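Hypothesis: this fold can be encoded by more than one sequence.
Test: take the structure tokens below, design a sequence, compare later.
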């Protein structure tokens, strides 16, 4: 349960002010939503100003790494080479690639091609070909703060169907982002995402979603994309989470690679695409920290 402090207590945010002069009215809004039956974030999910500043610095590295990939990715490059780029640029900027050795993941980045939905493992023998679409998913630790975002790349020229898929999934993220407002709900974002995907004849992966991030690689809340407006967790200033729908050209069904235990594929073998951004809920809207 979300509990208030006594009015003359020092505020929980560390400002040094009395609670009644700081976050009492803020907490009243959260408690009203909770009493109405909504899921609300605990205080541990609300980032404080100094934490947000550190997360912004981590995000700068994450964006710089993806910018480098965008400038250099092309036909004939191996996914292992992308992994080397990510490790080098991240460490040169003082960061650590968050995926490396995370729960046994062997590389610094995820590279997911065509029918690979996510968690593709870089490989010297996996060479990018004309017409491939690839998601490059970068995550960074910098001075203990985490950032996470991914982009889709079309290698050379591809067919109109794949090109449309890549475009539409980015539009899904943008439409979801438009719904990220303080005192709204995660379901507002989710409904915008899946409505747009389905209107274009696509399906949204159900089992894998976004997540809170900043002080750890994966935090609450889990962020799905099949919710309805007015449902899901209350969006409160200070929350940071990813919007990263995985949109399939065909059916939503997926399976995991039994050999490597990581890579997720579409069951029907049709392409999948994903964009990922990292967003902070602010007092008057949102701020995209990593993209």
């Amino acid at each position: 349960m979300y509990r208030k402090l006594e009015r003359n207590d020092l505020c929980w945010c560390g400002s040094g002010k009395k609670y009644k002069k700081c976050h009492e009215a803020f907490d009243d809004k959260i408690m009203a939503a909770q009493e109405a039956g909504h899921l609300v974030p605990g205080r541990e999910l609300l980032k404080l100003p100094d934490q947000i500043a550190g997360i912004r610095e981590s995000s700068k590295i994450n964006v710089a790494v993806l910018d480098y990939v965008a400038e250099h990715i092309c036909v004939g490059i191996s996914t292992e080479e992308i992994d080397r780029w990510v490790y080098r640029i991240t460490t040169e900027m003082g960061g650590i690639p968050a995926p490396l050795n995370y729960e046994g993941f062997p590389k610094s980045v995820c590279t997911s091609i065509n029918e690979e939905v996510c968690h593709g493992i870089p490989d010297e023998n996996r060479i990018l070909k004309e017409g491939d679409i690839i998601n490059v998913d970068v995550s960074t630790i910098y001075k203990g703060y985490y950032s996470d975002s991914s982009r889709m790349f079309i290698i050379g020229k591809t067919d109109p169907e794949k090109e449309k898929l890549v475009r539409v999934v980015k539009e899904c993220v943008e439409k979801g982002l438009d719904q990220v407002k303080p005192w709204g709900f995660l379901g507002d974002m989710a409904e915008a995402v899946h409505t747009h995907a389905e209107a274009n004849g696509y399906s949204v992966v159900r089992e894998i979603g976004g997540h809170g991030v900043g002080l750890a690689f994966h935090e609450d809340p889990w962020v799905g994309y099949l919710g309805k407006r007015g449902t899901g967790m209350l969006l409160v200033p200070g929350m940071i989470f990813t919007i990263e729908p995985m949109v399939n050209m065909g059916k939503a069904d997926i399976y995991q690679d039994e050999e490597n235990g990581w890579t997720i594929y579409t069951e029907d073998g049709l392409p999948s695409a994903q964009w990922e951004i990292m967003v902070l809920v602010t007092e008057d809207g949102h701020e995209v920290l990593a993209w």
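The mean pLDDT is 97. The chain has five helices and 15 strands.
Hypothesis status: open.
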